[in-house]
Amino acid sequence: MTSSDPDCKPPLLEPVLAVVGVGLIGGSFAAAARASGAARQILGTGRDRASLQRALELGLIDKAVTLPQALEEADMVMLATPVGAAASLLETIQPLLGANTVLTDAGSTKLELVHAARRVLGSKLPQFVPGHPIAGAERAGPEAADAGLFLQRHVVLTPTPETDTGALARVQNLWTRCGARVMSMPADRHDRILASVSHVPHGLAAAYMWQVATAADADERLALAGSGFRDFTRIAAGSPEVWRDIFLANRQAVLQEFDEVRRALDHFEQLLHDADASTIEDFLERAALARRLWAGRAQQP
Amino acid sequence: MTSSDPDCKPPLLEPVLAVVGVGLIGGSFAAAARASGAARQILGTGRDRASLQRALELGLIDKAVTLPQALEEADMVMLATPVGAAASLLETIQPLLGANTVLTDAGSTKLELVHAARRVLGSKLPQFVPGHPIAGAERAGPEAADAGLFLQRHVVLTPTPETDTGALARVQNLWTRCGARVMSMPADRHDRILASVSHVPHGLAAAYMWQVATAADADERLALAGSGFRDFTRIAAGSPEVWRDIFLANRQAVLQEFDEVRRALDHFEQLLHDADASTIEDFLERAALARRLWAGRAQQP
Distance, in angstroms, between A246 CA and closest chain B CA? Predict the structure, then answer.
């Protein structure tokens, strides 16, 4: 990501970067920004003292500060908290956000936060660039932080009509330097798409896991669960707190997508009722081909 | 698995072993039986000439033969075809099955095959030991065969009341030598459990993948699908032919389990409708804890 030639340093983009919430995403963003030479100093803040201490020890951040200090010193502030917490921080941030400071975030849903920003930030709304890096890992916390987490990953920015083009460009540039592929779309479109490809799978995996675990013969079932079960349910192990916020923030789009998935399931169950061999095979083949095509395109089978 | 001391060879269990269908499961069984020293000669047969040729080249089998030849020469015959094909082979097998030959299989559903065996095998029913190794891989065909595929994996045998105890012991011994953990249960119980932990996840993943792939904005959705989507849908890429047979053979149990999963999903959707934060978190936590516990127990996170 960085050149090893000391005479050819990549330009500094944001002299001081502050990260609010130094877990997997915030910690990885800090690590990637540092590794790319995009920031000179990285401040960390957040409600979890132990995580901040750990982030310091791991060298992810240079200094643990309060949110007001972060806002005073930083050129760019990244909110990397769970979705629910980000919205509630905006009221603290509003009076302290300097005119040249850019505020961005990494939340998994965007529309609710954009509405909150419009309500709370007032004249400073143009300085806010909502964003969502489509990257994650099974592990959480600063220990899981990885400077390469965003390499070749999509980052979706959802600017409002008011968003300052200079602020947008600064956030785009920083993510690009972290190795990400940046795109923009309206917040509501982002939320509908993510409901489909992220939130609904999580809800299905969780409801399925809940059903198996609450069955009278759960132990016997789980003893015979194999590698298909393992992969299908992996996401159900994700943080209940993080996912509660995502489901609450995006529940309209999620419920709408659940309806669509139920219709597909109705169709498949009808084929089973009818014991319609060739149509069952066609249905499964359509799904299999789509999955294989996606894996080939995404280069991540 | 085998001792390297030539003076301490593990005993030969089945001098001649025949495998019908030399794909992933049949090929791996052949490889494991050979590696463990349980068989001296391994015959292969099946409808796919190219696979047989490939299995010969890979050294999985010693000789490609016809099904009648296999039945004449082998001490044990393993049916490792898709579930639908196994039942239709029984009529050919019945008149040719020698009195000391043991017939077993590796199909993913058991009740329908047991019914077919009862109808077709007549006085030779005691020689048939139905079985199901709970092991698989993303890849298929003889190239994917792996002598270690069954190591520490469960193999469920579903003997009938008529099954000969000697035949049962021979199949148990061979699987144990292949590194598997062998257990027995009635065929209907096996099918209900596998409907829950294997067939329903496949159906959900396929129906979900079908729904995303047939959406008007499928390309945009798939471009933003990440690692959660990848794992959740992996099984949907499985062989449509193999899974068609599984769903047809076990459709009653699968439809019943789908009903249970729908009830769990109804419950979760109701919580979203009510925007009931703490109950949503409880639900997700129950699922997450169950998944983490399972991963810890299964030692395969």
Answer: 11
Q: Is A236 on the interface with B (CB under 8 A)?
A: yes
- Identify which of B255, B133, B263, B128 has the alpha carbon closest to the alpha carbon of residue B192: B255
| Inter-chain touch A207–B261, beta carbons under 8 Å | yes
Which helix (DSSP H) or strand (DSSP E) does residue A245 occupy? helix A240-249
Strand partners, B79: B20, B105
A18-41 pLDDT, tens digit per residue, is 999 999 999 999 999 999 999 999
The answer to whether B174 and B30 are in contact (CB under 8 A) is no
Q: How confident is the model over B145-199, as pLDDT tens digits? A: 999 999 999 999 999 999 999 999 999 999 999 999 999 999 999 999 999 999 9
Q: Kindly state the average pLDDT of the residues B130-149.
A: 88
Q: How far is B4 from chain A (nearest CA, A)?
A: 31
% of chain A residues with pLDDT over 90: 88
Answer yes or no: do A234 and B232 touch at CB < 8 A: yes
B119 has a pLDDT exceeding 70: yes
User: Quick one: which of B158, B97, B103, B109 has its CA closest to B128?
Assistant: B103
For chain B, which domains are there?
A: 6-185 (3.40.50.720), 190-298 (1.10.3660.10)
Distance, CA of B163 to CA of A123 (rounded, Å): 81
Residue B281 is encoded by which pair of tokens? Answer: 């978190």
Contact B38, B174 (CB under 8 A): yes
Residue B277's nearest CA partner among A73, A191, A82, A122 is A82
Query: Which of A211, A254, A285 minimises the CB distance to B240?
Result: A285
Helices (H), A63-146: 67-73, 83-93, 111-121
* Exposed/middle/buried for residue B287 (C-beta within 10 Å: 0-12, 13-18, 19+): buried
**Spatial separation of the C-alpha atoms in residues B198 and A231, rounded to whole Å:** 11
Tokens of B131: 């079985």
- Cβ-based contacts of A196 with chain B (< 8 Å): 212, 215, 221
pTM for the full predicted model: 0.87
Convert the pLDDT of each residue in A48-106 to its tens digit. Answer: 999 999 999 999 999 999 999 999 999 999 999 988 888 899 999 999 999 999 999 99
User: How far apart, in whole angstroms, are the C-alpha atoms of residue B8 and residue A286?
Assistant: 53
pLDDT digits (tens, 9 = 90+) for B70-117: 999 999 999 999 888 888 999 999 999 999 999 999 999 999 999 999
